[in-house]
């Protein structure tokens, strides 16, 4: 019991120590506009009962979400790049052209392994309703 | 794709598209976009409920940053890189300020003037629809049904029918020419076949049937001969198929008999000339 409490406290302390720069960071968010509009974030938070008055909190969450997606997308993009470079090298016919105007199209093939790295399993539904 | 998608979800999709473009992705599958949108929405909802729970757990109704941080920790999200992310990310790419959706004003076709609600219907109830929805208007001219007009119409019809029948017989039966020149028989006359007692047709009642029994007798007698319809216009056409009584038959020449037989066969072939079935209790 004691141990548990201690660990809890520890984690809280850690959060506090990690949170300290975050609260400083919060002050910078006054003029920052995240990609996800405040209203949209507020709406989805509201659906789960969370209604912060401070718009900076909203922005913090927006940024976190944005980073979350951005990381995943970046991973998927790397997969995509790897795949296309493999494909082009295996073809080895139009290398010069391929590097020049290679267009990256994100597909589920790229997204699925990227998500798996984040511990998210995604499956294609059998059919759409 | 979707007609009634939540506009907030649409905005999420737009934001994701902006992020992807910024990363250097040129295009993405619809599946990818959909999955990412779903994940983003889940993320927001989840962090919302987490923070909300932590907030209420500590007896506050107003969330503070600590609640969110705890939410992040609970969700296992590394938030240490956020500051860095904001700093080196040129991510200030605003999704174009959503243009106010031009409200598509569906122009309802106004037909007629709406009726005001009658006094016994409370005013808060919806008003009546356009009158065309419940008012019946005749789409055709009402038929004239007064006696004179109908008689007139009937007469015209009868006359037309007779004319048509005469014309038809002129085409199909032998005719006499009124004038001698061959090329133009403008006034064809239906050839008349003389019968032995020429006055017989005048004696036999053919135009009208007065008695049902009589009718039966005639029908039986005429069965093979000719539809009685034809005899409506007996003014110009002397009945070419007389009612063959025994006397007559004896008197007639063989030649006419032969022609008549021919006629008979021909009659049956022609549906217009075949004997009609008279109703048993016909009332004409």
Automatic annotation (TrEMBL), chain A:
Query: Which coarse location class applies to the principal site listed for this UniProt protein?
Result: nucleus
This protein is called Transcription initiation factor TFIID subunit 10
GO cellular component labels: SAGA complex; transcription factor TFIID complex
Task: Give the species this sequence originates from.
Answer: Aquatica leii
Q: Which UniProt keywords apply?
A: Nucleus, Transcription, Transcription regulation
- Where is this gene product found? Nucleus
State the similarity comment: Belongs to the TAF10 family.
Supply one GO BP term: transcription initiation at RNA polymerase II promoter
UniProtKB/TrEMBL annotation, chain B:
> Domain named Bromodomain associated: which ranges?
6-81
Spell out the Gene3D superfamilies in the cross-references: Histone, subunit A
Q: Which UniProt keywords apply?
A: Nucleus, Transcription, Transcription regulation
Indicate what this protein is called per its UniProt record.
Transcription initiation factor TFIID subunit 8
Region of interest called Disordered, as start-end residue ranges on this chain: 220-262
UniProt keyword Transcription present? yes
GO MF, any single term: protein heterodimerization activity
GO cellular component assignments: transcription factor TFIID complex
Gene Ontology process terms (BP): transcription initiation at RNA polymerase II promoter
Query: According to the UniProt entry, which residue ranges have a biased composition of type Basic and acidic residues?
Result: 233-245
Q: What is its main location?
A: nucleus
Pfam annotation, one family:
Bromo_TP
Family, according to the entry, reads as follows: Belongs to the TAF8 family.
InterPro entries given in the database record = BTP (IPR006565), Histone-fold (IPR009072), TAF8 (IPR037818), TFIID_su8_C (IPR019473)
Q: Provide the protein's localization.
A: Nucleus
